[in-house]
């Protein structure tokens, strides 16, 4: 008898995170544009803040793809790679939360929700990898 080891809560979280990240990206981009118009945003700092946001978006696609693929196919390597990309996304999120030029309360709320989702997803990924290996 074969048993299914893939995680339904993890798969649902991948879907929800994909939708939320689109909202997060658009809202953060809009806030960066807003801050550049309203505040005296130094030109030297605008490019790095935008670069971090776009780099994060480029990491998000393979992170979610590998996570979904790894979970559904019960492949610990793909899920582990997705977990590694999540670490990179967390670092970039912390940059946007703590070190970007101007941090608004909306930045804090949006990024805190994203970091909580990453944390929950990472815990479920580790649990799924452990189930796949055993």
From TrEMBL:
The chain crosses the membrane at residues 12-34, 46-66, 78-96. The keyword Transmembrane applies. GO terms for cellular component: ciliary transition zone; membrane. It is a multi-pass membrane protein. Keywords: Cell projection, Membrane, Transmembrane, Transmembrane helix. It is found in: Cell projection, Cilium; Membrane. It holds the Pfam family Transmemb_17. GO terms for biological process: non-motile cilium assembly. The keyword Disulfide bond does not apply. This is TMM80 protein.
């Amino acid at each position: 008898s074969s048993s299914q080891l893939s995680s339904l809560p993890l798969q649902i979280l991948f879907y929800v995170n994909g939708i939320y990240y689109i909202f997060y990206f658009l809202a953060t981009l809009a806030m960066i544009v807003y801050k550049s118009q309203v505040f005296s945003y130094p030109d030297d700092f605008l490019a790095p803040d935008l670069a971090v946001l776009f780099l994060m978006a480029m990491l998000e696609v393979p992170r979610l793809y590998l996570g979904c693929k790894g979970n559904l196919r019960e492949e610990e390597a793909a899920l582990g790679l997705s977990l590694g990309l999540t670490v990179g996304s967390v670092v970039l999120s912390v940059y946007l939360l703590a070190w970007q030029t101007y941090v608004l309360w909306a930045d804090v709320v949006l990024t805190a929700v994203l970091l909580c989702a990453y944390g929950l997803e990472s815990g479920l990924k580790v649990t799924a990898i452990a189930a796949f290996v055993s």
